[in-house]
Amino acid sequence: MSFNPVMVQAWRGPAVESEHRGALAVVDADGALVLGLGDIERAIFPRSAVKALQALPLVASGAAERFALSDAELAQACASHGGEPAHVATTAGLLTKLGLEAEVLECGAHWPRGEAQIAAMGARGETPTALHNNCSGKHAGFVCLGCVLAGEADRRQFLRGYVEPEHPVMREVTAALAAATATDLSRAPVGIDGCSIPTYAIPLRQLALGFARLGTGQGLSTDHAQAAQRLRRAVAAQPFHVAGTNRLDTVLMQALGERLFCKVGAEGVYCAALPERGWGLAIKMDDGNTARAVEVVLAAVVQAALPLNDADQALLQRHSELSLRNWNQRLVGRLAATPALRQALGPLARG
Amino acid sequence: MSFNPVMVQAWRGPAVESEHRGALAVVDADGALVLGLGDIERAIFPRSAVKALQALPLVASGAAERFALSDAELAQACASHGGEPAHVATTAGLLTKLGLEAEVLECGAHWPRGEAQIAAMGARGETPTALHNNCSGKHAGFVCLGCVLAGEADRRQFLRGYVEPEHPVMREVTAALAAATATDLSRAPVGIDGCSIPTYAIPLRQLALGFARLGTGQGLSTDHAQAAQRLRRAVAAQPFHVAGTNRLDTVLMQALGERLFCKVGAEGVYCAALPERGWGLAIKMDDGNTARAVEVVLAAVVQAALPLNDADQALLQRHSELSLRNWNQRLVGRLAATPALRQALGPLARG
User: Fold this and answer.
1) Which B residues, 252 through 281, put their C-beta within 8 Å of a C-beta on chain A?
2) Residue B174 and residue B56: Cα distance in Å, rounded?
3) Interface of A with B in 175-194 (CB under 8 A)
4) Interchain contact, B332 vs A288, CB within 8 Å
5) Cα separation of B258 and B272, whole Å?
6) 10-residue block means of pLDDT along chain B (351 residues)?
7) B15 to A119: CB separation less than 8 angstroms, yes or no
8) Of B231, B226, B229, B265, whose CA–CA distance to B249 is shortest?
């Protein structure tokens, strides 16, 4: 990834203070390259950006229907949520439907996002549980799938170790990811994700293909194509549950609904589907910066690729060029997609 | 900063997941270059890394002596502290000595570091004040200096706006920074820092010179040379107060005492003095990553540049090659100085 282009600059007053390099692939559902910037053939760990692809078996297996999963529960199966009370309640509610409890989740515990939330938990005398983990909804989805795969077996016993690559649950999940991205994951470098499931390194171009397929259904099995549509609709109906208050995924899908499916991943990854263009896209920042680098790039790409009304145009502009304020709320700088990136994205409007 | 070298890699399992580029300058007190990697002539915002240089007038003016500042108070004047109870109490104590209160501080308020601390504040029903701001000790130092500069004038009135470039306090502070780094700051790009004081862009090489001078006294005025020694001794005596629990500055200076003075800055900056070598150094990561990039580089540089006993060698090795664990405490990867950086640092041992 030696010479990927600078895509985002952080300005302080009159000078560039820091900069972020990355790669971007935009492809159609046939795998034809619409736009490639930087090294798009390099395999990267997609982390949480592919949760929607990993959730396909939850729907395709009939598990979502059997347990009457709500839109919020399905959105949370695709989510990196902020551990807000409504997120915690949604995961807990799904587990109750399954006759299970939080202890079955193997994602580990961490504090929710945001100091105000943490202080509020402190005030209530609470400490974090697996329900607060940003992946708890995805794990509840895995557990729900496991309840169907378990058949007549004891659920708790069957589920034990569901995060391991060879467990029947994870084999289904990995098979869905491999099929959507047309990648042989049995030969891919594999790491362990923050929530303990395997994460497979996949070329950026193939990740973009997976999201073109997620957005169009084209190239997926009939079951998975239907599942993809169901998941996208659930997220569009309940975008709070895919991320949370003031989070980019939530904000953008609240505005754009089914016109966009996007999902952030740790270490500077973003994947998205633009169904009306028939395109999928994948972004990876070299330095792994998520909050302020890859989000800016994603906003700039969506801004370039979709025809937008004035309000949506302004929303995307605010997220592709942000004002930076200090602790006294003084304007100190800005975070912006580079002119070179804007120019490179130009053809998307006409593409 | 187009082609600075990769200095740190984040590995996940068998593959590099992310990487960090940067520049490093090591110079002696005459300004002779000992080692330069990447673009060391580029002016960068040093942010909090130069707090010790900005604290020189606090001592040189006689303010520290007049108000009998303790080692902890002096260390905190050079600090980016974690807002732990002992930090808050130290700043509050200094203000009480001056007959002033927290409202005089113009740094703004933010929550302290770490979820456990925030939850504990929530449990006590507390919200953040300027005392919790990581810069509160530096600002209390500015205020203390202002109490001397005010002469017979009303202190509160004199101090108002002390963060502005043209205020007598900030003129003293800026003059000290300019003298130490041998840089004409009247012509330097200037931004506003997180705590609202000006931050001037200074070439990395000149920042390294400032720290060679801080560590040796050479090239400073007699007053500033004495002040530098006083500040370094105070920090070595009270390293907790320059950062806090488990923070790199604190951990390294707890181990190495006066053999090292180091200070992190926002946006991936580190400056340090190695008095026994007569060297100063400055590091800037292109992407502004502080926590996991510039800290690793600093540890690798110190490891290469100082003769160390086995315990200190092991400590520096742990901080220049860190294990990464997930929410279940499973080992998922490592964060490491690159072999190329290690090799480039080799000559420091013999230099």
Assistant:
1) 267-268
2) 10
3) 189-194
4) no
5) 12
6) 87 97 98 98 98 98 98 98 98 98 97 96 96 98 98 97 98 98 97 97 98 98 98 98 98 98 98 98 96 96 98 98 95 97 94 66
7) no
8) B265
- DSSP string for B70-127: -HHHHHHHT------HHHHHHHHHHHHHTT--GGG--S-----SSHHHHHHHHHTT--
* Residue A170: pLDDT over 80: yes
Q: Work out the average pLDDT over A278-293.
A: 96
Instruction: Write the DSSP string, B125-166.
Output: T----GGGSTTHHHHHHHHHHHHHHTTTS-HHHHHTTTTSTT
Domain B6-350 coded CATH 3.30.450: no
pLDDT score at B1: 45
Q: CA of A214, closest CA in chain B: separation in Å?
A: 25
Burial class (CB in 10 A: 0-12, 13-18, 19+), A255: middle
Q: Specify the 3-state DSSP secondary structure of B250.
A: helix
| DSSP 8-class letter at A224 | H
Range 126-165 of A in CB contact (< 8 A) with B: 127, 133
Q: Which residues of A fall within a CB distance of 8 Å from B10?
A: 267, 288
Q: What distances in angstroms separate CA B163 from CA A144, B166, B169, one per listed residue?
A: 57, 9, 8
Q: What is the ipTM of this complex?
A: 0.96
Burial of A138 (0-12, 13-18, 19+ CB in 10 A): buried
Pairing of strands A321-325, A190-192: unpaired
CB contact under 8 A, B330 and A195: no
Q: In terms of Cα–Cα distance, which of A345, A3, A33 is closest to A206?
A: A33
Sign of CA dihedral A177, A179, A181, A185: positive
Spatial separation of the C-alpha atoms in residues A65 and A211, rounded to whole Å = 23
Q: Which residues share a beta bridge with B285?
A: B22
